[in-house]
Design brief:
Blueprint: H1 25-35, H2 46-54, H3 60-71, H4 88-108, H5 116-120, H6 134-140, H7 144-158, H8 163-166, H9 174-187, H10 197-207, H11 223-237, H12 242-269, H13 274-305, H14 310-336
Length: 349
């Protein structure tokens, strides 16, 4: 191959997951543009801009379009040129979709806490009433088929666990950076490939009879799940959102240990397998330590260096709480009615 050939003349790769089917005009336009051999300036048309501004911010169409555009910054898709990651037309549309989602979040979080103590205080104590907890539902009532669905959905994040949060590292300094790197080092296996948390989740999927291939279950994932993954990608890709990403990361670490304990019990009760149980048991211990480090060193260090970011940190926490609650309510509603929560049923394990 001629190394000086234009990017559009280079052969495509066959790595990465397959592109999904569209779920509306916006996602269809993105997928059509990606399958084309060259940039697609039609994405910059007034009609597309109007559709982006009028789209349901939590609907299947917008959330899938955003997910696909974000995935270009992770591992991409099979047969899609890597250079498309920086296609200006795709980036312009992504900005419009992000603005739509952020505006909706701001509207829904009017009156939410604006200080770190107010945002995280309620999360530091185990609630007396766990009736709304998804992990509690799975611990006490979950069936194996529901655990399989849960794992398939969560794989869209856990197979790239900690990757979105790594984007914040070069945007931090001092205590916050050192502490963030220490936590991420644990997330990435502390130098041992077999202990990388994404690898542990792949082993969990194998125990559950699922395909651990990266991105395999994108077609199955409904909008409430896509929104939870899109939020961390949105915050991670923008330096201006570094405070909110730290808030998101802190929410995950603060809430992970008790939730993981319940999920480990659910896996054990349903006979999911040793690797399935181990993934969550690992997070009970690791995230109990991470919680202290993220609150006192990552958040504390960031606020010492940039006190003006406190409201952003609180926003990231509140936004994560909102979208995780929405996902939990969606899953419980489907499952208590005896219905699948997926857009396509899983094969038998």
């Amino acid at each position: 191959m001629n190394p000086t050939a234009p990017a559009t003349d280079r052969p495509r790769t066959a790595t990465g997951p397959l592109l999904p089917a569209g779920r509306g005009p916006l996602s269809a336009a993105v997928l059509t543009a990606l399958r084309a051999p060259a940039p697609a300036p039609e994405l910059a048309s007034p009609a597309v801009a109007h559709a982006a501004g009028a789209a349901d911010p939590w609907g299947e169409d917008l959330q899938l379009a955003l997910y696909v555009l974000y995935e270009l910054h992770y591992r991409g898709f099979a047969d899609i040129q890597g250079e498309r990651e920086w296609d200006p037309d795709l980036l312009r549309l992504r900005g419009l979709l992000e603005a739509r989602m952020l505006d909706a979040l701001v509207d829904e979080l009017t009156g939410a806490p604006t200080t770190v103590d107010e945002a995280f205080g309620p999360l530091l104590e185990e609630p007396v009433d766990l009736s709304g907890s998804l992990s509690r539902f799975l611990e006490t009532h979950g069936e194996l088929w529901q655990l399989r669905e849960y794992a398939a959905l969560r794989s869209l994040y856990h197979l790239k666990e900690a990757d979105p949060h790594a984007w914040v590292i070069p945007r931090l300094t001092g205590r916050a950076k050192a502490a963030m790197v220490a936590i991420e080092y644990d997330e990435f296996g502390a130098g041992r490939a077999e202990r990388v948390h994404a690898r542990l989740f792949a082993d969990l999927m194998t125990d559950l009879g699922l395909d651990p291939s990266y991105g395999r279950y994108l077609e199955c994932a409904p909008a409430p799940l896509l929104a939870t993954v899109n939020l961390m990608s949105l915050l991670g890709l923008h330096r201006a959102r570094r405070g909110a990403l730290v808030g998101h990361f802190a929410w995950v670490e603060v809430t992970s240990s008790p939730g993981s304990r319940r999920l480990a019990r659910a896996m054990r009760r349903c006979g999911a397998g040793p690797a399935a149980e181990h993934f969550y048991a690992e997070h009970v211990e690791a995230d109990a330590v991470h919680e202290q480090v993220v609150r006192h060193e990552v958040i504390g260090g960031l606020l010492a260096a940039e006190p003006g970011l406190e409201a952003d940190i609180a926003f990231g926490c509140a936004a994560t709480d909102l979208l995780e609650d929405r996902l939990g309510a969606y899953l419980r509603t489907r499952w208590t009615a005896g219905r699948s929560a997926l857009r396509a049923r899983l094969p038998e394990g």
